[in-house]
Amino acid sequence: MPGGRGARSLTERTRQALLEQIHDGAFADDRLPPEAELAVQLGVSRTTLRAALHGLEADGLLTRRRRFGTFVNRHVLRSAMRLNRLVPFSTLIAQQGHEPGVRQSHRVAPASAAIAEVLRVAEGAPCVHVDRLLLAGGDPVITVEDVVPVAWLAVPLEQVHLGDSTFEFIAHSCRTPVDYSATDILARVARDGEPAGLLVVDGEPYTELLETHFSRDHDVVGLSRVRVDGSRVRLSFIRRDT
């Protein structure tokens, strides 16, 4: 529903505003102001603020203690790239203190048998391939290949908007945004020039993520193949008892 998507977008903007203030050291002793005061500062309702705070707490970035307040877990914030949320890799790179950059291009190619099986389309169906090289301080650290069936596009090919992430590309160019992603995490060893584009020498390890992206109705809208130079950036999850 448009209203639900708008509310989620406002919560995400509030979350991003909080993250920027956290990184700028805006909160003395890493303690956030009371909710009523913070909501006024950000110009949002307390309901929206609580949703943003809850998300940051679920990611392990904040600790909320009743009668004591809300505190930044700075050691968690800086330790690694959090994969718990659907956010651009460029944002995660910035959260580690690096200057992010991206080089990208796109092309149309027929779906191979393996890709067609994942995307639930016919073999040979035309698909948009978006290739991204993400940089940290000018060094290549992550490669991403996004694949989306042309049939899912909401705009003509010449009007495709790549954005700066898989999620922005799909949100702006396809009929539905990504609601959630299923990710396989694989340990790989570099050999024969792979992974292309990264500074990983033969025999050294790297991480590969195979992601399938779903709509709110559980339709497959795309897939991504992500390769990460673990010697330069580190991936991690927060697992906690719910």
From TrEMBL:
Hydrolase among keywords: no
Keywords: DNA-binding, Transcription, Transcription regulation
Pfam families reported in the protein's UniProt record: GntR (PF00392), UTRA (PF07702)
Top-level taxon of origin: Bacteria
CDD domains reported in the protein's UniProt record: WHTH_GntR
An annotated GO BP: negative regulation of DNA-templated transcription
Gene3D superfamilies assigned to the protein according to its UniProt record, in alphabetical order: Chorismate lyase-like, Winged helix-like DNA-binding domain superfamily/Winged helix DNA-binding domain
Protein name: Transcriptional regulator GntR family
